[in-house]
Write a structure and sequence with these properties.
By secondary structure, the chain is of the alpha/beta class. 66% of the residues lie in helices and 14% in strands. The chain has two domains: 230 residues, Orthogonal Bundle (Helix Hairpins); 111 residues, RlpA-like domain (Barwin-like endoglucanases), CATH 2.40.40.10. A six-stranded mixed β-barrel has the order 3-7-4-6-5-8. The relative contact order is 0.10.
Length: 348
């Protein structure tokens, strides 16, 4: 008799020890998986922030280029106006030069036609020697003034020509500078387009990562709940059936009201969706869908000697002949892989 009690005590001790280690292992895996998931989304978010900063810097550079292009184009417009003015001045100077040159050549030709005899006659017809010198000096000054005028006009025309060449060169260099700025702007716009595409890709990856993390969080919550009550899986007994899930909230008692029929389950296709009462569906939690029972009603669902406590938080099933739709965890807890006959007692 003592040996049997000792064996039973040892068995109970081993069972509790296994439950403790199972709980510790589950908690460790939960913490590690949560840290990995958080790191994934955080790294993606950091990458998106860096990409956005690069885009902002590129946009700032484009704004600076636009200002430089506008300034260069304004400066180039002023140079074009100066070039047009210089061209007009050059044309006027060339006309004056040709006119003066023709006048000068005409006077030289007239003096030449006078010949020495005519020139001597002019001198002899003078009233006195003073008048003769005055006439001779006048003719000489006329020739010198015309020659000086031609040189001045010619110099002015050359100056204007040089100014036009300088403006042409300046216009050419400014145009090249503006073209270079425009090409650089096009390159930056291409970088922005590429950066936006990269951010869109990273945002899609972030959405997927957050979805994975949400899924892992739901799984973590279910695993944590299961781990906390792992010690009760083998020890809690109510009536003839084994209770394989958490106990209902304290204070609830069986009402004697029971239903029976075919039960089914739903899971991956609905994971993360909203339930009829507004919660997020977690297929790893102990919940169920019923067509009419009030939300948050607790049921003890029994199938082939195994029982599980579930809470109503959704509506269904909508397939004829079925009375309840269990979560994946609830169905697995009592050994239902497809459909199965169950009895469900209401607890309040």
């Amino acid at each position: 008799m003592l040996n049997r009690k000792s064996e039973k005590s040892s068995y109970t001790y081993i069972r509790l020890l296994c439950s403790f280690f199972l709980t510790a292992a589950c908690c460790f895996l939960i913490v590690v998986s949560a840290a990995i998931a958080e790191s994934g989304s955080r790294e993606i978010s950091d990458g998106i922030a860096r990409s956005q900063q690069n885009l902002d810097r590129t946009r700032d550079e484009i704004a600076q280029l636009d200002q430089r292009i506008a300034t260069a184009q304004q400066y180039l417009g002023q140079r074009r106006m100066e070039l047009a003015d210089a061209t007009t001045k050059l044309r006027n100077a060339e006309d004056m030069y040709n006119e003066t040159l023709n006048l000068y050549e005409g006077r030289i030709s007239a003096i030449y036609k006078l010949g020495e005899s005519n020139y001597l006659a002019i001198m002899l017809s003078s009233e006195d020697i003073s008048d003769a010198f005055a006439r001779s000096s006048y003719l000489s000054r006329v020739s010198e003034n015309d020659e000086r005028l031609v040189k001045q006009v010619k110099a002015q025309a050359e100056s204007i020509r040089q100014m036009r060449e300088k403006v042409d060169d300046l216009k050419q260099s400014q145009a090249e500078d503006v073209n270079g700025l425009i090409i650089r702007r096009q390159q930056l716009e291409a970088q922005i387009s590429s950066g936006k595409a990269e951010i869109d890709s990273e945002m899609a990856e972030l959405t997927r990562a957050q979805s994975r993390e949400q899924q892992q969080e739901l799984e973590r919550a279910a695993e944590e709940s299961a781990a906390i009550d792992a010690g009760n899986i083998y020890s809690s007994v109510m009536g003839p059936s084994i209770i394989v899930s958490n106990q209902p909230p304290a204070g609830l008692q069986p009402t004697g009201v029971a239903i029976s029929g075919i039960a089914s389950w739903y899971g991956p296709g609905f994971q993360g969706n909203s339930t009829a009462n507004g919660e997020i569906y977690n297929m790893y939690g102990y919940t169920a869908a019923h067509k009419s029972l009030p939300f948050n009603t607790w049921l003890k669902v029994t199938h082939e000697g195994r029982s599980v406590f579930v809470r109503i938080n959704d509506r269904g099933p909508y397939v004829g002949g079925r009375i309840i739709d269990l979560s994946l965890a609830s169905a697995q807890a009592i050994g239902i892989s497809g459909i199965g006959f169950v009895s469900a007692e209401v607890y309040r």
